[in-house]
Queue: 4 jobs
Job 1
Amino acid sequence: MPRRHIRVTGAPEAPLRAALGALRTELGVSGSFPPEVSAEAEQAAQAPARPSYDATDLPFLTIDPPTSTDLDQAMHLSRQGTGYRVRYAIADVAAFVVPSSALDREAHRRVMTLYFPDGRIPLHPDVLGEGEASLLPDQVRPAVLWTVDLDAEGRTLAVDVRRALVRSRAKLDYAAVQKEIDGGTAEEPLALLKEIGELRERLEVERGGISLNVPEQEIVERDGDHTYELAYRAPHPADGWNAQLSLLTGMAAADLMLAGGTGILRTLPAAPDGAVGRLRRTAHALHIDWPHHVSYAELVRSLDPHRPHHAAFLQECTTLLRGAGYTVFRDGDLPGITTHSAVAAPYAHCTAPLRRLADRYVSEICLATAAGQPVPDWVLSALDALPARMAEGARRAGTVERECVDLVEAALLKDRVGEVFDGWVVDVQERQPARGTVQLESPAVIGRIEGTDRLPLGERLRVRLTQADPGVAKVRFVPS
């Protein structure tokens, strides 16, 4: 089954909270920190390392989900001659975390923030991750400030990265940004998001990159009565434009590290022919026209995530992203693979250090390289272990994601066993009895289905819910 993302609006009901608590216990993860880690975080929050360069005169803004307070990135966009200047500020975690401290060791144990429907298991204590290190509005914060100059077509002309003090002026969400831009009321720094984002999207097409607009499953509280429903949420265009700025920064970081000879890349080999062939069969089954002269990237860009069979295919496309990993190199000994096939360029994770461990190290390498200084020893000594550590963290996060979605679906359908739903068969396994995956039109559930002889891949199908018990049994369907 493809990976899925889920967001929650409102607080889950008690049975779901209990099941989620049991899952945290089973996985051995906790939102609380050891006393010595919390103490270090409190102390660091009061006295971070403050850079001398002051960029607080620039009106940065952040774009995140409405309830997010762990804000990693802030942007300021402006015109520069016939082109543009992108300033992208990244939370400076190293200004707070001392190498080899208890706080640092705990971050290496956690690796990345885990998201449960009823709360986060953060990488750093909240006094930092949602407080003094977060780029919250109207607060002066230390940051790693990237300045990327672009020409009129959006191509990179020059890159600078340095530590700086910044201050965000506004915390915006994607829906509000989209509304302002579409309505023509956005001021220039925000209006340029569309202009620059679309230029970068065109360059992505040119180099053969792929961005998947995969719908999220969203749990929405109904009428404030503590009952919930599942719905699909397709990304706004503004989501994609904002993602292009993150990609731009990650590509600039990769190029800088490759030029310096030491770094950590996010790499993904090209998909094997068999994987693309399987997607062609899935497209045919879902009645998606994919002429042989049309590339995979072109097809993906033509799909509408609001249409159920297109959304189902986009979910299947995420299987081509399996195999991504972190590649370390040093002393000019470049790795055999330096590119990420979905980005179609060298790329590095550097824009989410509050939530992902490796990003802090990428920032430090880039800062040193740009300044013509040696990479710090504490960074070099951690490099070789980082890929395995990040891979383990990603596996844990994937388990949390899958199990949480299963729990939420079972909790929301537990009183509807025996009911019949409309759906699409989006995946079929070659076995008897036939097994596969069905994506319901409403509610937004993706679950296992077992048939008698065969399941009609890509076809609309009436299905009956046979089990749904949070914490005990995942949702299962049979043809009706």
Job 2
Amino acid sequence: MRTSAFVYPWDVVGDAAAPARLAALGVAQVTLAAAYHSTRALTPRHPRHRVVTAEHSAVLYPPDATRWRGRALRPYPAGDWAPGDAWGEAAAALAAAGLDVHTWVVLAHNSRLGAEHPHTSVLNAYGDRYPWAPCIAQPATRAYLTELAAEAAVRPGAHGTELESLGWYGLAHLHAHDKTGGIALGEAGQYLMSLCFCPSCRTGYGAHGLDADELAAAVRGALEPLWRGAADDGGWPAVEKLLGEERAAATRAWREETAATLQEAAVAAVRAAAPDGFQVLLHADPVSYHCGANAGVDPAHILSVADGVVVPCTGGTALLTPFAERAGEGSVLAANLTIVSGMGGSPGTLARDAARARDLGANELRLYHSGLASDADLAAVRPALADL
């Protein structure tokens, strides 16, 4: 199975041994971050540092000033954690080691955008904004995300891209020192708390036969039992029970339509900017109402738009099946497995987990994350990939 390892530019720049070390894992490809959210990351083997703090969402290359001239929403260049063309420098070193380089582009997840342009953020039924979550229904935000996808994906030397967070983001997010786990919201509560009530979404609900004020009141009422500690019986049936079937269906229709058309536009923009043969994958979840880095999608639709999907498989491979049932010849179905023991990964069972994923239809692997893994984790990966 073709395998790619996720990597940050700061894992490579300044460490001359990094490209050969990655090649020695047995991967054919690296998925190198070109646009990324704020993070604090260990770099356990780097000769110059051990911790990198990316203070805000940024592009890890010099953005094109001409492309962004006159736009209120634009990408932020990185600070000293990825100065200059860090992506380009890292990509050149990795390619020289014989590795195929693809871009890794985080889109609708940007706390700095929300801080500097609050109106762009998801606005819940209580009037709280989520600065990490741009509302993907707003025309200016959609235009920004589509333009960013094209620029960040198609970097010189890249042979493909993986687009993350190309859909709705909601409440669930490890934001700063997160203190949101005290109430067990479950899937239904997460969905209700992620519904947006910005002007664009209010108009969208209206087009689906809903009065936005009445809907917001209904959402607040539906959440009351959860605040008191009632158990969420799980999944979409719980949303329908709490909100009512007709209201739930209308909100879902609006959100699915909004996400699908953005995905179509972003992929089309990437293809228009890319050379022939450029691969476009989406980090995806087959449950269309889910929010987050792995965008909730309709499997049949997204496989008709992109070249394939990257599917979270740490802890289980069940999410592969809906995609495998709809994948056509040539579609990429990449199982994403965490190889960092300290982050819940299991590098010691990689061969077994990969085989299970292959049996369910996966034809590629993604390893999260080679730069964060310990030497012991990487030592377990090498023989597993050799067996594959």
Job 3
Amino acid sequence: MVNGKPKPIRKSGFRIKKEAQVAAAEVEAKLIRGILPHLTPVPIDEYFEKWVKLYKSNLSTTTQEH
């Protein structure tokens, strides 16, 4: 939960479903004990640059400059 709203934790790269289930159980156990997952603050300029590269890679040069 973040600000009273559910926010799922996403992770991939497991070879089999059982590995993913074990990892999910570990995260849930930590949440129950009050240990938050690794959330690191990122400066807004770095976040924005990554976001633009990931989601808006097809923008024209003029649009990117604005």
Job 4
Amino acid sequence: MSEISTIEPAEVKRRLDNGERLNVIDVREDEEVAAGMIPGAKHIPLGQLPERHEEIERSAEIVLVCRSGNRSGRACDYLNSLGIAGLKNMTGGMLAWEKL
């Protein structure tokens, strides 16, 4: 298994603001996502990853997001165990994103 790297919410925002298309996967629950998501993110709740991980576009970088960074960290570990590369956990999650 490879080491999971992290990415700061400010870097995600800066890159999106610069027009970069990021592969962002939001692993929060439906009611959390209803309050708002990162533009362009794909919603796959953590509990559905085993059935839906094939929906994740394999790209050089896959940014995983949750509320605080814990569930997305678990999602990174799970996807890493499947041999998926390029995973990044967004530190601080949407709590940090909302403060930008």
